[in-house]
Amino acid sequence: MTQHTQNPLEHPEVQLANGRAYLGSFILSALLMTAGLWLTITHAMSPFAAILATSLLAGVAVIIQGYLLLHMDLSHAQIWHTVAMVLFLPLFVVTIGLTAWMFHGLYERTMIMPPAMSSMSH
Amino acid sequence: MLVHLQGPWNPLLGRLTLQQIPYENPILLGTFIFAAILGVIVLGATTRYGKWGYVWREWLTTVDHKKIGVMYCLVGLVMLFRGFIDALMIRTQQAIAIGPNSPGALGAVHGYLTPFHVGQIYTAHGLIMVVFAATPLLVGIMNIIVPLQIGARDMAYPYLNALGLWLTTAGGALVMLSLFVGNFAHGGWYGFVPYFELPYSPGVGVDYWMWAFQLSVLGTTMGSINLIATIVKMRAPGMTWMRMPIFTWASLSTNLIALTSFPVLMVALGLLGMDRYLGTHFYTAGMGGNLMLYNDLFWIWGHPEVYFLILPAFGMMSEIIPTFSEKTLFGYATMVIASFAIGGVSWGVWLHHFFTMAAAPNVNSFYSITTMLVGIPTGVKVFNWIFTMYRGRVRYELPMLWALLALFLLLVGGMTGMMNAFASNDYMWHNGLFVVAHFHMMVLLIAASVFGAVEYWFPKVFGFKLEQKWGKWFFWFMVLGTGWVFVPMFFLGMAGMTRRLDYIPYTQWAPYLHITLVGMAFYVVAVLFFVAHLYVSLRDREKNRVGADAWGTSRNLEWMTHSPVPAYNFAFIPHVNARDEWAWRKENGIAELHAGDYEDIHMPKNTGIPLFLGLLSMGLAFALVWRIWWLALLCLVLMVALIIIRSFDRDTDTTIPAREVERVERAARDGSSGSVPPAGVLGDAVIATSTVRSGSGGIGGNTTSPRPSWAPRNR
Ligand code: HEM
Ligand SMILES: [Cu+2]
């Protein structure tokens, strides 16, 4: 077992705590989410464009929260968190991407739905 | 209640009524009597010989990775036995219920099992074998061996380790409980929607299936976090990435798969749970639900899962084959790359489990090709093993026999997998026995490697070798059983027989089904030989004692410390100079263990909290199955309370004094049990004895229990 300190305040992760960053991240995320919600309920864009736009907003929110809230950077204490995040990205693209691709073709052949019910078949 | 329940419900007992106890079914009644007698014998013997203190202190509260690993393996073995009995029942039913004139008994029109009962048996068989037998056995062996191979004193998170064990055990226990209270799902181990939705499966079976599955998912995910952190952060000085033993590499790859795929299953099952409990419509037809989403999510986990199972098996083969070929592993670097290539590709093939769902042709082609790609790294591995044996001094001892059987089964399973990989082929035999025979070749390969690994590492963990005579009978009867059961099964698949039949309409298939039953008889005999194997080994253990390097030709760090391994693994953390460090030391004549200036060793302290969390999670799952809301809430509140109590506990570590280390080391070096020091030096016997200790701690104020013994157990 590695020797480690019993005082939680001395852990490097805890030392990263930063009230201003938390507040900033909270406000920015709230703003981004409001924007996404507004885009969706006002139908300001075509369904496909709305999906793209909200995904983009979500991506920006992820980066902001990763940096400001989870303090992901290249420092010694945090590097493995960042590596894990980066490694996760290709998986995310593969699973979501291939699933979307499969459903796209599938809907055309099996689930003939009224256009309003299916946004993925466009 | 947010959903419409069929049948009675009351606030006190939920859906639980006396009619839910299947006492009128003779098979289940017999099982219950068998289990009850067994339970009474085990509990009675523990009390009679005053072993409760020992069991509590050394096992139930332990955070020692070796003991946790042993308990994982025990859980796996028990569930393997249950799964085997299920298989026996399926095969006998299918050997009887052929053709309209076949006899019926026990309420069944044909055979002796009703369709409802057969359904539960094959569902339980599949789920148990995949997540409650193979997974615990593999996780258990990784738990024991990985820290030893990298020169660590424990896992990175010993407490989490125990928690993972008890959650998995709770899941397995829940499956067992469903035998006697209520029933189990009867639609296949991977579930179907909308069939598994509440309106179509109104009973508790699907709920049992779902929560047991969910518990195992939690346990395995925690285990994977632990193993990854251990491998990344706790390697001994000098152990660079490219000096890591190959089994450790395989474990890393496999746990990366687990960590990334099990959460998907958690979501897939979670959405089904929301449908069944809250009335949402994720998987219903209509209301915005999507039937196909379930298949997609399930197999996004399901295919990586099969590689989660096979990679540790490959790792075991890669350890056994060099040891018994007396050569270094051929193509170490390619082996590492292949392990990660398999892990990587496994993420892009899942749709081959539902080629027939009517995805677009280019989608099916894409997945056909990615599936075939898996063959490349697998082929690399096969050739590496063969080249390792080539011009080696091959010794056909038991571990090697099992590894060679695994190699053979891999060829059969891999080739037939390739045949499945053609979507055009799969359209003909999907959901048929050909597929079933394919994946049984693969899972039997895993079983063979596990048996090989147990034979191989047993002396390290317990200090004596298993005997070879009955072990060889066991091996050869397993070979016979496998041939007689699965060769006819491939033919039946080719003949068009579909899976999960409770009645077989074509009498032409009868000869094949009868041959598979003969194979089952061989398996039954094999199980008896296995019991004899264990019994004789235990009886003759004094004769079969071994030193640190049990096989004489082993190569890695785990063979450097004593057999059995002391609680702290290594008195000094070894410095690693080479790949195959132990072989390197033997070649350079520095394999001798010397006494030295021992230092205090810092270790985690035992705790009963993970066990209680496991019990409570089982209570929670049981309450959710029967919708006993007050009990669910109670268990949940207690769990949260325990977690909070534990987080305030500062007394979680302990130190083994240098004096004590020296004594254990000296005793182990002398290798004689005569030098066992008297009990009481540390307030406890060094060697596990049968004396009961008072005040076994637990959760009163202080969450840690008294110290276990440091010395290797089971002397
Ligand atoms: C060479 C590598 C492999 C290939 C090409 C392959 C291919 C396939 C394909 C195409 C199927 C779907 C057949 C169908 O449902 O119609 C399948 C099913 C299956 N395979 Fe494999 N496989 C491979 C390795 C493995 C391994 C390593 C395991 C387990 C450790 C495994 C276990 C399974 C299981 C459990 C199923 C069926 C699950 C079910 O329907 O219940 N396969 N395989
Ligand atoms: Cu697959």
From TrEMBL, chain B:
Primary location group: membrane
Region (Disordered): 692-715
TM ranges: 27-47, 68-85, 122-146, 158-181, 208-232, 244-272, 297-317, 329-350, 365-387, 399-423, 435-458, 470-492, 512-536, 607-624, 630-648
Subcellular location per the Swiss-Prot or TrEMBL entry: Cell membrane
Record keyword Metal-binding present: yes
Domain Cytochrome oxidase subunit I profile: 50-577
UniProtKB keywords: Cell membrane, Copper, Electron transport, Heme, Iron, Membrane, Metal-binding, Respiratory chain, Transmembrane, Transmembrane helix, Transport
PANTHER family tied to this protein: CYTOCHROME BO(3) UBIQUINOL OXIDASE SUBUNIT 1, CYTOCHROME C OXIDASE SUBUNIT 1
Name of the protein: Cytochrome o ubiquinol oxidase subunit I
